[in-house]
Specification:
The complex is a heterodimer of chains A (307) and B (287).
Chain A (H helix, E strand, L loop, with lengths): L1 E9 L4 E2 L8 E2 H12 L10 H6 L27 E10 L12 H11 L6 E3 L2 H4 L6 H20 L18 E7 H5 L9 H11 L1 E4 L6 H7 L1 H5 L4 E4 L9 H9 L10 H9 L5 H5 L7 H8 L8
Parallel strand pairs in A: 1-4, 1-6, 4-5, 6-7, 7-8
Antiparallel strand pairs in A: 2-3
Chain B lengths: L6 E9 L6 H16 L3 E10 L12 H11 L6 E4 L1 H4 L6 H19 L4 H11 L17 E7 H6 L8 H11 L1 E5 L2 H9 L2 H5 L4 E5 L8 H9 L10 H10 L4 H4 L8 H5 L4 E5 L4 E5 L1
Parallel strand pairs in B: 1-2, 1-4, 2-3, 4-5, 5-6
Antiparallel strand pairs in B: 7-8
Helix pairs in contact in B: 2-11
Classes of the chains: A alpha/beta (307), B alpha/beta (287).
Chain lengths: 307, 287
């Protein structure tokens, strides 16, 4: 059974990142969805075919394709293939340059508060500590190396060079990027992603993508050569309870002095008030600044892994 | 406006709360922000009133659990409280009667708190006798808090379902008290009000509050997830999630409770139409 350590990239308090769009997801919702729809931590669970069509995730299965429908090539039942062993929230560094981004130290503190009661998701500040914005693949490589090393030390196994995926045994953990449906559309934005990076994220690692509003992640996968080539590595999770609390809305409510209780954990709300975060001024930060990925990747693209 | 010029409001939410969810709690926060933003009101209290077991809704678990969960959920709120009166009544109580009960309590409390302003006290005494006549629509009292029913758009639209509400009850709720309706779709709500004579007459008493963040955490969905052994974390407050787990609530079995029983309001009114109220939609089955 494959072990998965899902990873969240994050650039706002307790929210998932999507590189270009304004919208965010509450971390909390996605973790819940992940647990309920896709994986059950520490136990495996077979999800039968009836429930797949109703609300379970649309997941590719590498073996039989007898459930394949012509218009939805990626519907397959998932049958106890995975065990989720951890979740990582990785807030982006201040160098990202996104409008309204408050200091990383606050975003880290808030994420920690929100995750205090979670027994499987933790916050990692490595990315936020880097002097410049870090490409997604670089962050993923870092975490994957770390996880693998921990696993090897824990089991005493040596599965070869950490960067070579082909030496991995089927029981060593995998790292997957967890994101919202709008994130998949960011791959199309010119200058935001390097093709090789998309290849690595989808091919080497894999994506777990949660539906959002009326967006159709299947379409985004279908329209991308790279993504559709790696369909086996892309898990689409349908969240039937639409809960579109976005960080943008939360920040808007805070600016206007409106209540955000029951949208965020109380401890995070308290922190926000104590530090007077999210004001009219904070939203103007980075207003005329170009997003760092757009400038950095043209200057000095990060090398791919075949070196 | 000076604080003393603001109209005090108490928001009352009636419902199954089977179980209470973050969506229910958000409704209170949204309603308070909206009313206070008008500059005319100050919301002084929120009341959660869970329906009694006599309602006979399918899947309705015991009132004592539903009240306990609501109490856990509102533990961290300094203005939302749970009232168990309705849940303790042996038979189902119409919403208008529940409102009347709470209205009387508010007036009594207001009277007892007022020691200084004797002129005000005399005014209260003078109108005291009219407490016995809930059907008279005397003018709104300026010296006591206003009680308003807090609900979602589904409740507003349920006013249109035959035999579910008594016409005079609807008139009393919107005429005497007022409604604060939280909805994603403001247009539909306004249209519904526009198309109803009684609602249109009292439209100034109906506040439609837009919910900009789509939040469809329905108790039905929560129960479904629980029956399937799935997590509902972050849909309900953590203490409620723990309570459900500790007491083993919400199973396939509990969902079958009252499966063949007619909903109390319909039993009471006529038996011609069966109705199953879901949180967001209404199914009509003709007998």
């Amino acid at each position: 059974m494959e072990k998965i350590c899902c990873m969240f990239l994050d650039d706002a308090p307790c929210f998932l990142v999507d590189n270009m769009t304004e919208r965010r997801r509450l971390l909390l919702d996605l973790r819940r969805v992940l647990l309920s729809h896709c994986f059950c931590p520490f136990t495996s669970r077979a999800i039968d075919r009836c429930s797949v069509t109703q609300y379970n995730p649309i997941c590719p299965m590498s073996e039989s394709g007898e459930d394949q429908e012509s218009h939805q090539p990626m519907i397959y039942p998932i049958s106890g293939q995975f065990q989720v062993v951890g979740g990582i929230v990785s807030p982006v560094s201040d160098g990202y340059g996104k409008q309204g981004l408050v200091l990383a130290k606050h975003r880290i503190a808030m994420a920690r508060l929100a995750l205090q009661s979670s027994d499987w998701v933790s916050v990692d500040d490595w990315e936020s500590q880097q002097p410049d914005w870090t490409e997604t693949v670089v962050t993923m490589r870092y975490h994957y190396g770390r996880i693998l090393k921990q696993y090897q030390e824990g089991t005493g196994k040596d599965s070869g060079p950490t960067t070579n995926p082909h030496h991995l045994t089927s029981s060593s953990p995998r790292l997957k990027l967890l994101c919202g449906a709008d994130f998949l559309d960011t791959f199309k934005v010119p200058g935001l992603w390097l093709d090789d990076h998309v290849e690595e994220v989808a091919g080497r690692f894999g994506l777990v993508c949660v539906s959002r509003g009326g967006l159709e992640p299947e379409l985004a996968v279908h329209e991308s050569e790279t993504l559709s080539r790696h369909w086996r590595n892309i898990f689409l999770v349908r969240e039937w309870v639409r809960n579109e609390t976005s960080a943008t809305e939360v920040r808007r409510a805070l600016r206007r002095g409106l209540s955000v209780k029951y949208l965020l954990p109380d401890s995070v709300i308290k922190y926000i008030h104590q530090h007077n975060l999210y004001t009219g001024d904070s939203e103007l930060k980075n207003k005329d600044v170009l997003l760092r990925p757009l400038t950095k990747q043209t200057e000095m693209p990060v090398k791919t892994l075949d070196d | 406006m000076e604080p003393q010029d603001l109209t005090k409001v108490v928001l009352l939410a009636c419902g199954s709360f089977n179980p209470i969810t973050n969506m229910h709690l958000r409704m209170f926060e949204l309603a308070r922000d909206y009313l206070e933003d008008t500059g005319q009101y100050i919301v002084v209290r929120g009341i959660i009133s869970a329906v009694g077991d006599g309602y006979k809704k399918k899947g309705l678990i015991e009132a004592c659990h539903r009240v306990d969960m609501a109490r856990l959920a509102t533990d961290t709120s300094d203005w939302i409280k749970v009232d168990a009166w309705e849940s303790q009544q042996p038979e189902w109580v119409e919403t208008a009667k529940v409102m009347w009960h709470h209205y009387k309590e508010l007036m009594t409390a207001e009277q007892n708190n007022d020691y200084v302003d004797t002129a005000k006290k005399r005014r209260i005494e003078a109108t005291k006798h009219s407490f016995e006549d809930p059907s008279s629509y005397h003018t709104r009292r300026d010296n006591g808090p206003q009680l308003k029913l807090l609900c979602g758009a589904d409740v507003l639209e349920s006013f249109g379902v035959p035999n579910l509400w008594k016409h005079e009850d609807i008139a009393e709720i919107v005429g005497r008290y007022g409604l604060v309706c939280i909805t994603r779709n403001g247009c539909d709500a306004h249209k519904f009000i526009h198309q109803s004579e009684v609602l249109w007459k009292h439209r100034k008493n109906i506040h439609v509050v837009r919910e900009w963040v789509t939040n469809e955490i329905s108790a039905t969905h929560v129960r479904r997830a629980l029956c399937r052994g799935q997590t509902v974390r972050y849909l309900l407050p953590d203490p409620v999630v723990s309570y459900i787990r500790e007491h083993g609530l919400y199973s396939a079995e509990s969902e079958q409770k009252n499966a063949d029983v007619v909903l109390a309001p319909l039993q009471r009114h006529t038996g011609l139409l069966y109705l199953r109220l879901c949180s967001r939609s209404i199914y009509l089955l003709l007998v």
